[in-house]
From TrEMBL:
SUPFAM superfamilies on file: FAD/NAD(P)-binding domain, FAD/NAD-linked reductases, dimerisation (C-terminal) domain
Species per Swiss-Prot/TrEMBL record: Ferirhizobium litorale
Active-site annotation: 442
Protein name: FAD-dependent oxidoreductase
Sequence ranges assigned to domain Pyridine nucleotide-disulphide oxidoreductase dimerisation in this UniProt record: 344-449
Amino acid sequence: MTQIENYDILVFGGGKAGKTLAMDQSKAGKKVAVVEAGMIGGSCINVACIPSKTLIRSAEMTHLARQMNEFGVVADNVRNNLVHARDRTARVVAEMVATNQAGFDASGLSLILGRGRFVGPKTIEVQTESGPRTVTGDQVFINLGTSADVPNIPGLAAANPITHVEALQLGDLPARLVVIGGGYIGMELGQAFRRLGAEVVIVERAARLAPREDPDVGEAILKILSEEGVEVALSAFDLQVSGRSGEGVTVRSADGRSFEGSHILVASGRKPNTFGIGLDLAGVDTDERGFIKVDGQLRTSAPGAWAMGEVAGTPMFTHASLDDYRIVKSAMAGGTRNTSDRIIPYCVFIDPEFARIGSNESDLNKEGTPYRVAKLPMDVIPRARTLSHRKGFMKAIIAADSDTILGFSMLGTSAGEVMSVVQMAMLGGLSFTALRDGIFAHPTIAEGLNMLFANVTAPSKAA
């Protein structure tokens, strides 16, 4: 009979929230174990955020090299080497894995590598290389994340499509890449592989790219991608797939359009890693999609068990998972932090970047909330001109009857950094006039905020 190992804190899955909580509690003197299938540091640094942005950077450098003549530099016969780009990505990942492992070691936690599943409340059986281990915890935290979902499209599974994981490990450049899904991952990787030299077609069922954003955002992104040679097929419904990825594939839509490719990449959604892990035996309830049901402090239906990150339905961003850790830590200490009291920013790493914090026009129109809007093309910002990064725009949403900033969107160079400036103003409860009248260094992209907020109109008398 396997001996049961008891811990104060048992973390199932080593994503951002889980690993941060585990190290924190171990340093505080608790006996802590982390059960992880094998990705030390979580999916973000192994197969998602970090490797994808590293590859995107390689693609960006290739793209810039082809434009060197504009800057007075002669760069003839520019070529790319996907193997070198892949190896650079692997090195960055390896360095971050090592950093995370060092953090685990320094904290004193026990890292148990292997596939785990619940066999009872607060009890996990782990299949390790040296045999099965059974571990329990006074408190259990589930942080298993999500994985790419292959939709039920006729012929798709048989085509053996690649996901973002395999795309980041390719050594040979696809001649023509068909991307199923025009979301964040599809747009990022689609643009990157086009810049690396592949022909790319993005097939999206929605009527525009970035359908959760305002129409002007989707239209601007479409223009940018199209100008770089990315083919985008919108309103592509009821797809059928034939062939095999790597050998030749054909994707057909219900309206008769046909898209040929050498490879097919699925980037159409994510599914929680909750199936077949015994959540029913643990007393943990899930919704119809498999996401764990939690309250505002991320408690599950099982006493003494929390869920954090994407598996709990948290927006699929590493920084959101980190804030889940803060909420859970607060709850453990009797605090009141709640998932309802936060506004989560995000950034899409196409080039130029797209970033948003707070509400956009579409959100407020659905709510029937009146607002004022100010918009500024990137082309008028001096720093954008010096950089030759003139595409995109900034847009601010201001309350109709006060100076409160309700939201900010930006498609442009350094969008993520500029968005953070606006986010700090929103967190501090500052009026938009603080950004309108604040002194920003010149020439910077951030000084565009002076110009943007100077365009805010006076409150409506009707408001």
